Amino acid sequence: MAQMIPLFLAEEETSSSMARQRVFRDLNDPLDCYDDMELVRRFRFSRASISKITELIANYLNFTERSCAASPHLHVCVALQFFASGTFQIICGDGINVSQASASRYIRDVSLGLQAIYHQFVSLPAGLKRVEVKTSFMKLLTFQA
Fold first, then answer.
1. Is residue 69 part of a domain?
2. In total, how many domains does the chain have?
3. Tens-digit pLDDT profile for residues 76-104
């Protein structure tokens, strides 16, 4: 029994020295990686639109203090790809070398940012104007009242 303890300690020492090496993924900016046609094909928005969206919601994106943190454009592109494709987060992240957990955070942050600024771009009719729009819509499509 006493002979087995040194073997166990030596085995434990070997396994701790073989710890996983850290892997730094290349989080390239999609705006630098793809041409204009490919950006529209992948994300359904042009380079200028992606830049404008990023500019508008930059204050709502959470950034880490890491030395190789993801760019704001990457956050927006992952979210736009998720919105456009309706697929799983892991699949959206795989195409851009982002983990599912990171993709989830990016999608959440971009969604909250878009929610915070949508009043600048979307206006819904209220009061009498709402009734007018509803009536004209019903006439247009010949709904039965």
1. yes
2. 1
3. 999 999 999 989 999 988 888 899 999 99
